[in-house]
Amino acid sequence: MKSITILGAGVAGLATARALALEGWRVTVFEQAEALTDVGAGVQIGPNGARVLRALDLDADAASMRGKAVELRDRHGAQVLRMDLQGRDWHLFHRADLINLLARGALEAGVTLRLGEVGVPDGLTIGADGLHSRSRVALNGEVPATFTGHVAWRAVIPDEAGEPVSEVHMGPGRHLVSYPLRGGAFRNIVAVEERRDWVEESWTARDDSDALQRAFAGFGPRVRGWLEKVERPWLWGLFLHPVARRWHGDGLILAGDAAHPTLPFMAQGANMALEDAWILSRCLIAGDRGEQYQALRQERCRRIVQTAAGNAQIYHLGGAAAILAHAAMRVGGRLAPAAPMRRFDWIYGYDAVQASRSIQTGT
Known about the structure:
about 375 residues; alpha/beta; about 25% strand; FAD/NAD(P)-binding domain; 17 strands
């Protein structure tokens, strides 16, 4: 029986663990947190990520809401563009529910999960240890991140059941993304504002609700009503990290955010992690120790990271530029309603299961 150690019980680590355990591997996952909890955030799993969940025989529908549409709105709440998701395998998860789905799947497949332990590379090891990955540093050295000029508030608020639509409310220098969670009992909020300076890259800093409400005081009543329910939002600075140059070496292989941290503006972080998990598991089963895996994943991930980095500019237009851009989107949406989503078919149409069939054995 082949054995492997995985550092990190996030999306990439747990999905890879189940994929390998289902093939008879002995898998041990180390997670430094004492419990698999989450501070509270939503995550969107698009068709590319959902294909991996299906391949892992995990029931996404049991733990999420099916997304119906993505709507872009101006700061007053008027609809600019609606992109229909009907027929697409699109899921709105509370992140904790996605982690629980993957963790249960891993344990049922025979994975050993060791909480409250950092773990160290031992034999063949997968470094799925997240944004501040020690594994990435071990392979690539310290590579400084660049502050993007954006900060983001996160919150989950109680809500009444509503349409499962992801809304993007756009305004000068800021935007807000929101969608329902857990059958509509809660609502996820991510609010982004441009700033000149920021010091800490942290997921655990808090801020006053008043600061968030002031930042979006010029938005419509729907947004202001949501923000009035926020008590103490999480606040973090958004930093751009280069995709890792080296993904493997000396028995260590990177996966998920450890290899390719991304900004949240394409909602692809968890989806890329799921893609990694499937491709990496198939490569390992075929005898690859990282070369094919990096070749199959690196350029795609780099392109997604670059696309996400550019999206905020579209959301943050003001004045005449916003008027012209929004008018063009409205006209385009009426004339060719399917075209906006087709622009990203290269993302959502990707099938990791199909791509894995090109992996050569015995490398």
